[in-house]
């Protein structure tokens, strides 16, 4: 795991936030400092016996479609550390090139991407990819990121390096916590919030973090997954 200070993103981060958060900047409380991590480990260990076979079968389905099964991308984690997030592949292998071509030729799509950092109807997603996203199965490999301490089950969605400048004043709140597989933004405003609103929702999660609120988010996440609307 490398520090964000070794990349150009650190310069953007330094111009956006007054300082990089440290463990002393974390919200106070036994749950925040210790209980949340223990809960992550316990729940992941319970989920893995079910998740591993599902991941294996899904990987074979992706491979049958002619794509490599896993996708890795650098994301920014707690205290500005850069880590590699893992997902089951849901897009064509040349997705980045396709995106640039789409944005270059379609002004409406470019505006949507600049505002939301995603496309509502993304043509880069494969047929099996749509299923994996709707069921949230594509996120299951991130359980290993949680086990490694790079992520939490609940928290701000891990941002890409080039999204730092979009977080504005909410950036310190994001950096003080481990990013999550699910969280307040994912289960409440998944398709309607622009990136500025997403950042504010992440800051709200950090400010109201508690065991009770996390239990509520777990219940909402289960509902989202059962409805196959993705997280």
Description:
The protein has one domain (2-90, 125-226). Strand 2 (70-76) and strand 3 (81-88) form a beta hairpin. The chain has helices at 9-16, 30-64, 95-105, 107-116, 127-134, 142-147, 164-167, 171-175, 184-188, 195-207, 211-226; strands spanning 2-3, 70-76, 81-88, 152-154, 159-160, 180-182. The chain starts with a strand and ends in a 5-residue tail after the last helix. The strands form two sheets. Strands 1-3-2-5 form a four-stranded antiparallel beta sheet. A two-stranded parallel sheet has the order 4-6. Helix 3 (95-105) crosses helix 4. By secondary structure, the chain is of the alpha+beta class. 52% of the residues lie in helices and 11% in strands. Mean pLDDT is 82; it is low at 1-7 and 14-18. The chain is built from eleven helices and six strands.
Structural class by SSE content: alpha+beta
Oligomer: single chain
Helix content: 40-55%
Runs in which pLDDT lies below 50 for 5 or more consecutive residues are 1-7, 14-18
């Amino acid at each position: 795991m490398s520090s964000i200070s070794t990349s150009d993103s650190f310069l953007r981060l330094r111009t956006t936030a007054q300082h990089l958060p440290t463990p002393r900047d974390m919200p106070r409380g036994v749950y925040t400092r210790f209980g949340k991590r223990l809960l992550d480990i316990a729940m992941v260990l319970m989920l893995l016996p079910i998740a591993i076979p599902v991941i294996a079968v899904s990987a074979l389905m992706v491979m049958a479609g002619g794509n490599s099964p896993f996708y890795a991308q650098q994301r920014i984690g707690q205290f500005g550390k850069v880590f590699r997030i893992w997902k089951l592949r849901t897009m064509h292998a040349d997705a980045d090139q396709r995106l640039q071509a789409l944005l270059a030729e379609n002004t409406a799509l470019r505006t949507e991407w600049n505002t939301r950092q995603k496309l509502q109807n993304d043509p880069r997603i494969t047929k099996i990819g749509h299923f994996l996203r709707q069921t949230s199965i594509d996120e299951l490999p991130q359980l290993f990121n949680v086990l490694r301490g790079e992520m939490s089950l609940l928290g701000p969605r891990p941002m890409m390096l080039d999204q730092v400048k979009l977080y504005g004043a909410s950036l310190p709140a994001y950096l003080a916590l481990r990013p999550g597989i699910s969280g307040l933004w994912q289960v409440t405003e998944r398709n309607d919030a622009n990136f500025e609103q997403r950042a504010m929702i992440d800051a709200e999660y950090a400010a109201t973090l508690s065991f009770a609120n996390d239990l509520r988010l777990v219940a909402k996440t289960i509902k989202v997954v059962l409805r196959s609307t993705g997280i």
